[in-house]
Amino acid sequence: MSVRELAPYEGVISAVWTPRNVQTGHDSTSGAVTVLEIGTPYWEIEYEIDCIDRETFDKWKMFLLRRQGRAITFITWPILRPRPRDESVTSDAGIDLDSISEANSTITVSGLAASQPIAKGDFFSYRTAANGYWIGTATEAATADGSGDATITVWPRPRAAHATVRELTRIRPVGEFRLIGEPRMPEEVGNYSIRFSARQVIV
Question: For the chain, which terminus, N or C, has the lower number of CB atoms within 10 Å?
């Protein structure tokens, strides 16, 4: 059984990435609100997969069985957003994570093309200090300076980066996830469909 096995992508017709904030709070009739964060924000994904044949169905089914319920994690990328909006981006070679700020929810990267745009909604990932995977999305547009450096506001808050593995991924950036509940895998004549949900693992 492989921890952090890369999920298949064939047959995916919907993969909804929902941001989850872990909060409690108090609302008053005056409109004031007090919000207390009680946990780390994370992503949840809801998958809908329609397999064109039994081979694709079995590929997904065996992958999900290898998760052993919630026991074995997997990695995946935003299948419907495999690359940045800037169509000139064809490689991540030379792109490094320089620093992160949890307080400001920003990452600073280097190695971009001069004046390269970063669009709202672009995804990024990197290895964390605990050797996990952080994945986040730009909440504000940004532009690299003349040296190819850019500071990007992201959600969720970035985690401390790995000491030596500093590469930033923009093309098929991956995060680590664990199944929620049991997948639904009806196998009927002419209908090979799979539905399941997963929650991000934060390390």
Answer: N
